[in-house]
Design brief:
- The structure is a single chain.
- With about 170 residues, the chain is an alpha+beta fold.
- The chain has one domain: Ribosomal Protein S5, domain 2, CATH 3.30.230.
- Helix content is about 35%, strand content about 25%.
- The strands form two sheets. It has a four-stranded antiparallel sheet, sandwiched between helices. A two-stranded parallel sheet has the order 1-2.
- Strand 1, helix 1 and strand 2 form a beta-alpha-beta unit.
- Helix 1 crosses helix 2.
- The longest helix is centred in the last third of the chain and has 29 residues.
- It is globular and about 50 Å long.
Length: about 170
């Protein structure tokens, strides 16, 4: 690979063999790695790391559902903790539609019964979405409701992260 004026980001998401109760039901690890990369690349100031590669390796030890939002949020915190310059922390929240109900960050059983799902990753203080992922057919009213549901969860998640940061300092 040639050196560049800006750094590169490599992401890899993998699962242990015992992460999921039923073997072979692990989500596509290449797809998860690609989604993690897309969610984080807009937040990292890669221009401050010329000729550098930033590697993010996520290993899921136990899957309980909503793995990717957890991986994205934790990876963002780990990058900031490692001193990597970021524009903002990336938060990820997913919502699943189970019949008439919306569920935030569903567990495995709820994911297996979902009609459709939505995952949004964003940088809350910049009011910037880094990656929306929508599966299934949604009416515009229902997707607006799900997005508002996720945004409300973001605000709560942001408060918790700020409190943790203040305690740590």
């Amino acid at each position: 690979m040639m050196y560049g004026d800006i750094g590169r980001l490599n992401c890899n998401v993998s699962y242990t063999t015992f992460a999921i109760a039923v073997r072979g039901q692990v989500s596509d690890q290449k797809e998860s790695s690609s989604m993690l990369h897309k969610a984080l690349e807009g937040a990292i100031r890669l221009e401050t790391f010329p000729k550098t590669t930033v590697d993010v390796f996520a290993l899921v030890l136990e899957s309980g559902g909503s793995d990717l939002p957890v991986v994205i949020s934790c990876a963002s915190l780990a990058l900031a903790d490692a001193g990597i310059m970021v524009f903002d922390l990336v938060a990820a929240v997913s919502a699943s539609c189970l019949g008439p109900n919306l569920v935030i960050d569903p567990i495995s059983e709820e994911e297996s019964c979902q009609d459709r799902s939505l995952m949004i990753t964003c940088m809350p203080s910049r009011y910037e979405v880094t990656q929306p992922i929508i599966t299934g057919e949604w009416s515009s009213a229902r997707i607006n409701e799900a997005m508002q549901f996720c945004l409300d969860a973001y605000s709560k998640l942001g408060k918790v992260r700020r409190e943790l940061k203040q305690r740590r300092c």
